[in-house]
Write a structure and sequence with these properties.
- By secondary structure, this protein is an alpha/beta fold.
- The chain contains 17 helices and 23 strands.
- Helix 7 packs parallel to helix 8, helix 10 crosses helix 11 and helix 13 packs antiparallel against helix 16.
Length: 609
């Protein structure tokens, strides 16, 4: 069965009856290795073909679908057709020319990539795999097509008629109708990297940006990136199938939850009008909020999507609606708690309005206390009811008053039937994930829950291999920090930018020691302590705590303090979660300092790591 993107259930409301029938036939009569897209913007000019079909051996096919009856068509030539859809004559472009125009736009974009064209021979520079285009008449039979002489306007082999796409149609005959639409059969099987490059060029929304870089499709002289990372098919199908209503995505670390959040924000922003309410993107950590805000700015939608961390949002609410702020002399923890309660009371008393946002998107929802979730749920405009919560209980590293009976329904999130689970970790290499899971092995035992509960998910590696994590055991923290500085300096010499690196520590004291060594050696760095001291875009080594690293990722990560975890009196399970979060920030290289007598360092040492 072919994969349709978006999923059929998400398309039905905007499909004609004929499009629905064709989508069902394509799904049913094509094999698993076919990919289908319905009404998805394609290429740099974002044209909208009805259907795109992609297959590694067959190539690329663009289909236009027409629900016209025979009596709707008044006249037809190879250039233009006169139709009478509602009693008034209307002149439209020949539907085959429409499909061809869209196909050529796509092919021209693909041919800019030297890895997708024929390298030599008579067709050098032309696309390395077949492409075609055609028309589907969902309410005209082949006999009607022939008797009306429509073959004079469209060559018959470029057409599928209504009686050739019935439920009883033989799959081989149906497929042959499709392949008759290809003018030439040439080229070899499309490789998986080539398939990703095709999707990267055709569908800019599914691009996974490297270090936040954005490619300008409008610049015809721009050089194509050598590496093109895209969402996997499951992620793309999920992203494009998300609709309004309350939705929850449970996903392991590195499963692309934040990427899906960004896609959803961009999709909503495109539909935004001058009268629309703003879109709110929330998380708990300030560093992650700054990173999200930077991405929204790079996409050009920061004016419509407000990315902010929860407590800053609470303060902004109190200021905007004239509420009293907490006593500044209170300790930080007490002041934050008081600020949240003031917002809750303000909403309850209707001094702070509910329903302020067209949509609310919550990243790292497991960091939110139940009363926070209950408050935020009230901020969604009832007219859209658009709420998306991303969740992974394995990363819930903050102590919140969440009972074992916690459910989304109990805080007003109505997501039954609209819950998705992502188990594949794409961020980390197999070796990094194994190291992270080794310490947290008991924690990451998969548990099944009903869909309103909180499942504990065990990550599945995507199979990407890399170098084994480097475990260093030295007699002092100073010696460990010095060795890490040497290793990061070497990584820079190998070509990693300073901004590719992070030193993630368990405690502030370890951050101070590492910063001292980096400063002594003249290595550019910034230490994240408190609000306002983190610039995710700066080309510097980031020094931050395990808590503050949540939601972020770096190609090169050094963990400091793991050898003393868990310290005496600390909960081993909670410390294992922290180690897991820290280790899974690394996308390519992980260095772990295990000096000390803690159980985690001993466990890594015993396993020969």
């Amino acid at each position: 069965m072919a994969t349709l993107i978006p999923a059929l259930g998400a398309c039905l409301s905007r499909m004609t009856n004929g499009e629905k029938r064709l989508a069902e036939r394509l799904e049913q009569k094509l094999e698993d290795d076919y990919l289908l897209w319905y009404d998805v913007p394609v290429g740099p000019k974002q044209s909208h073909p009805d259907f795109v079909i992609l297959h590694p051996r067959r190539g690329l096919l663009i289909l236009e679908t027409k629900d016209w009856k025979l009596e709707t068509i008044k006249s037809a030539t190879r250039q233009a057709w006169e139709i009478i859809p509602d009693g008034h004559v209307k002149v439209v472009i020949n539907p085959l020319a429409q499909a061809r125009h869209c196909a050529i736009q796509v092919v021209n974009a693909l041919e800019r990539d030297e890895q997708l064209v024929q390298p030599s021979g008579a067709h050098q520079g032309k696309l390395a795999f077949p492409w075609g285009h055609g028309v589907v008449f969902t309410r005209i039979t082949r006999k009607q097509f022939e008797m009306a002489g429509l073959g004079e306007a469209i060559e018959p082999h470029y057409v599928i008629c209504s009686d050739e796409m019935t439920e009883s149609t033989d799959p081989e005959q149906f497929q042959q109708r499709l392949w008759n639409m290809f003018p030439h059969a040439f080229g070899s099987v499309m490789s998986l990297p080539q398939l990703d490059r095709v999707r990267w060029i055709m569908f800019p929304e599914v691009r996974v940006q490297v270090q936040g870089a954005l490619f300008d499709d409008s610049d015809e002289a721009a050089e194509m990136p050598s590496v093109m990372r895209v969402m996997d098919i499951q992620q793309e199908q999920l992203a494009r199938s998300l609709g309004d209503g309350h939705r929850v995505i449970h996903g392991v670390a590195g499963s692309g939850k934040t990427m899906l959040l960004g896609y959803r924000a961009e999709h909503l922003a495109k539909a935004h009008t001058s009268t629309s309410k703003p879109i709110l993107m929330l998380c708990y950590n300030e560093p992650l909020a700054k990173q999200l805000a930077r991405v929204m700015a790079a996409k050009g939608i920061a004016d419509r999507v407000h990315a902010v961390h929860f407590h800053k949002w609470c303060r902004d609410q109190l200021v905007a609606f004239g509420q009293t702020l907490p006593d500044p002399r209170l300790p930080v923890g007490a002041k934050m708690a008081d600020m949240v309660q003031r917002v809750i009371h303000g909403v309850d008393r209707q001094q702070i309005p509910s329903g302020q946002y067209q949509a609310v998107l919550i990243d790292e929802g497991h960091d939110f206390a139940p009363e926070w979730l209950r408050l935020i749920t009230q901020m969604v405009d009832p007219a859209t009811n658009s709420l998306l919560v991303l969740y992974d209980d394995a990363q819930s590293i903050y102590e919140r008053s969440r009972s074992k009976q916690f459910s989304f329904k109990s805080v007003g999130i109505q997501a039954q039937g609209r819950t998705t689970i992502l188990k594949i970790n794409y961020r980390n290499t197999r070796q990094i994930l194994q190291t992270a899971s080794l310490v947290a092995a008991d924690l990451l035992t998969a548990e099944d829950k009903d869909e309103d509960g909180i499942p504990m998910l065990k990550p599945v590696s995507c199979g990407r291999d890399g170098e084994a994590p480097l475990i260093i055991r030295l007699p002092s923290l100073r010696a460990e920090a010095t060795r890490l500085a040497e290793l990061l300096g070497a990584a820079h010499q190998e070509g990693h930018a300073w901004g590719d690196m992070a030193i993630i520590c368990r405690h502030y004291s370890e951050m101070d020691e590492c910063a001292s060594v980096l400063r002594q050696r003249g290595l550019p760095h910034q230490v994240r302590k408190g609000a306002g001291s983190f610039d995710p875009a700066a080309d510097t080594i980031k020094v931050l705590t395990m808590h503050a690293s949540k939601g972020l990722e770096f190609p090169v990560v050094a963990l400091v303090g793991a050898g003393n975890m868990p310290a005496k009196g600390e909960d081993e399970r909670e410390e294992a979660k922290l180690f897991y979060v820290g280790a899974t920030r690394a996308t390519h290289r992980l260095i772990v300092g295990v000096g000390g007598s803690g159980k985690f360092g001993v466990k890594l040492h015993e396993k020969g790591l």
